[in-house]
């Protein structure tokens, strides 16, 4: 059995994510997983992050299916209506990828 979201495994973002989010926001998702979530709660292999507009800045809302634990993390980045409303972080045991909702259905 593997430990989900081990920072020592390869990490990627899909083409859809890279073309719709700035690198700082993509990096922020990995930081949130490593610094705010790992060790605090058991993580499944699929995490959900909603991108919320909070007074013109991005708030990442974390949740995972089957868990009552949710968390909002305010970030210093300006929000854009062009950002996807939701992204997923997926760990298949070998690599970890941030995906858009329509990309996860293709797996």
Automatic annotation (TrEMBL):
From what organism does this protein derive? Candidatus Enterococcus ferrettii
**Superkingdom classification of source:** Bacteria
Q: Tell me what this protein is called.
A: GTP cyclohydrolase
What's a Pfam family this protein contains?
Answer: DUF960
The record's listing under InterPro entries reads: DUF960
